[in-house]
Write a structure and sequence with these properties.
61% helix; 3 strands; mainly alpha
Length: 176
């Protein structure tokens, strides 16, 4: 059979992603936006910008060049992580390797996002368009990352299922 073989677990993974998408906004993410704000503010300060971290009506904010930049849970890319990690997690090579893969992917996503947000704010403070500095790069990173994780999982499942299915030939005749 030459068709795509898909693990039934893909439905569980997709269900988790759907659940995350449905409840993401009501989960209290607490310190994550504040941490993103503080790290970004420190980076901007190190780059020579005057960025002051404040709380504006309970929302973590940076004030720079008389502009207010608010930090929401989406700014942390925790939503991207929660959408990607179900496709990255795999215990078949062992729990330790599965955890290591999750740790590496999480580190890459969070570090890359920190750089993305810092550059976006620096470029916007310097007069760039918010759409070009923030919105476009966000779209270019977010949606393809989810698609790449899904495609990677489908290919991995197909490979694993193909390797596991050793076809045993039927005998020429079955005795009665």
């Amino acid at each position: 059979m030459n068709g795509l073989r898909v693990s039934p677990w893909i439905a569980v993974r997709m269900g988790f992603v759907l659940a995350v998408w449905c409840v993401f906004e009501i989960i209290p993410w607490g310190p994550l936006p504040r941490l993103q704000r503080d790290l970004t503010g420190s980076a901007l300060h190190a780059l020579g910008y005057r960025a002051v971290p404040i709380e504006s009506e309970g929302v973590p904010t940076i004030v720079a060049d008389r502009r207010h930049y608010t930090f929401t849970p989406e700014c942390t890319y925790v939503d991207l992580l929660l959408m990607v990690l179900p496709f990255v997690w795999d215990v078949r090579p062992g729990v330790a390797r599965g955890c290591l893969r999750v740790l590496v992917v999480s580190t890459v996503v969070l570090a890359g996002n920190f750089v993305r947000v810092t550059i976006a704010l620096a470029l916007h403070i310097d007069g760039g368009s918010w759409f070009l500095c923030h919105d476009l790069p966000d779209t270019i990173v977010f949606y393809p990352a989810v698609c790449v994780a899904l495609i990677w999982r489908l290919r991995r499942d197909h490979q694993t299922l193909s390797d596991d299915s050793v076809e045993t030939p039927l005998p020429e005749s079955v005795p009665c």
